Amino acid sequence: MASVFGVLALAAGAFWLEAPGLIRRQQFRELVIFLVLLIIGTVLYSLLVLQITLPNPFVLVKWMFGWIGTARSS
Amino acid sequence: MPVYMNGKISVRQFTILIMIGSVGDSILIMPTITAASSKQDAWLSMLLALIGGIVTGGLFAVIANRLQRVSLYEAIRQRLGLWFGGFFFLLFLFSSFFCLLTLLSEMSQFTTTQLMPETPVNAIILFFTAVIIIAYRYGVEAYARMGELLFPVMMGLFALLVVFLMPQIEWPNVRPIMARGMVPIIQGALPAYCTGFVEMVVLLMLVPYVEGNAKLTRSILSGFAVGGTVLFLIVLLSVLVLGPSLMETKYYPTFVLAQKIMIGHFFERIEAVMAFLWVITVFYKTLLQFFTLTTGLAQVFQLKESKMLTIPLGMILLVSTVYGTPNITAYNQLLTNYYPWFDLTFFLVLPVLILILLLAIKQKKQQKVQN
Question: Predicted ipTM?
């Protein structure tokens, strides 16, 4: 649980670092993109520290090119 | 013009970034991967990959010169439109993302298996990503200058490695030459070609930052030639000093090479110093890929700044790396069986398609003007 607080602290730190400047410069598109990515990153990192299994991103690569490996081995 | 497009680097710095980037992670893993297919002919595989790499460098130079210092995304968008061009470019960024996962994975696995076995993998990835983020935030000019400073150090360490290992060369290790024909050599050349040269298509993202209007052909070709020669010498040295069986079984043969350096029983165990060479090259290749991903996303979303994307992207990359390559065995299987084809499709076929479309669309515009 402490690790999750660490992740949230990291996210809060990133928000504190970037958001005020973006708001001051009225860069709202940048702020929205930043927040979306930050939320995604925070959720994923929290799931990682909670040791919840997530899909392997390289499954996509294996799905696209796995038939080549199978053809070569046969 | 967005803030992140303001930096300028010299042609020399551009060349050095290509040299360091093409060595990249290949210096760590290529001897094992090439030897797995071609055994004692691994040096021939690397030579074949080098020749292919220089030809590919020529292709990238054609694209780079045609860009005329305009960003790759902008050039695609002007010719293919917002949505189609954006889709094409997102495919390019998609491949950069996966390349980053492999680089982070290699760096963390190398560090935990060879240098700091007690340190958790997540911590290594976290600190490495943090350094990449800091380097990116300083801007392209800063890390290009740093590359200029580190390049002599890198080449000096490499020269030391070659010179000090020469007494341990055993020429019979290369025999028999081509005993199993060309097929294993070509099989060994493919991952070397993809990892060392094809993945360096990200140099196209640096083109808008290169000062002046001179052609970049010589710069790109010399970068690939020098980087490729370093890799060739590393693989050749691995064959000559370690032999094919040891090359195949050890995960990081260049680290074993460094461990073998022994001068008069007082100059030995310098592999940690040599590790600095690998850290430089892997760091720069990772930085170039991260630069591509972050700056590319900022261009696609038409953002005025890109620095705020670094920390969230770093978090996503860390998680994806941990889940994507849970151990070295899974990673090696991926690298041997699937990943070279992924590289070929997204880092070679895609740029070729982009070049064809760039030429075709421009020719259509010229025909319209003539009519």
Answer: 0.92
A8 chain-B contacts, CB cut-off 8 A = none
Per residue in A30-71, pLDDT tens?
Answer: 999 999 999 999 999 999 999 998 888 888 888 888 777 666
- Cα–Cα distances (Å) from B5 to B1, B67, B90, B296, in that order, read 7, 15, 19, 11
- Chain B closest CA to A25's CA: distance in Å? 11
Q: Which of A29, A44, A68 faces B319 most closely, judged by CB atoms?
A: A44
Nearest to B9 by CA among B150, B203, B153: B203
What letter would DSSP give residue B267?
E
Residues of A in Cβ contact (< 8 Å) with B188: none
Q: What pLDDT digit, counting tens, does each position of B40-81 carry?
A: 999 999 999 999 999 999 999 999 998 888 888 888 888 888
Please say whether the beta carbons of B325 and B105 come within 8 A. yes
Using the structure block, give the residue that is written with the tokens 């720069």.
B284
Nearest neighbour of A57 by CB, restricted to B323, B337, B339: B323
DSSP state, B113? I
Using the Cβ of A15 and the Cβ atoms of chain B, whether some distance falls under 8 Å is answered with no
- Which run of H or E residues covers position B273? helix B271-300
Q: Domain B3-370: which topology?
A: Amino acid/polyamine transporter I (1.20.1740)
Are A58 and B324 in contact (CB < 8 Å)?
yes
pTM assigned to the model: 0.93
CB–CB of B324 and A45 under 8 A? no
| Every domain of chain B and the residues it spans | 3-370
DSSP B263: E
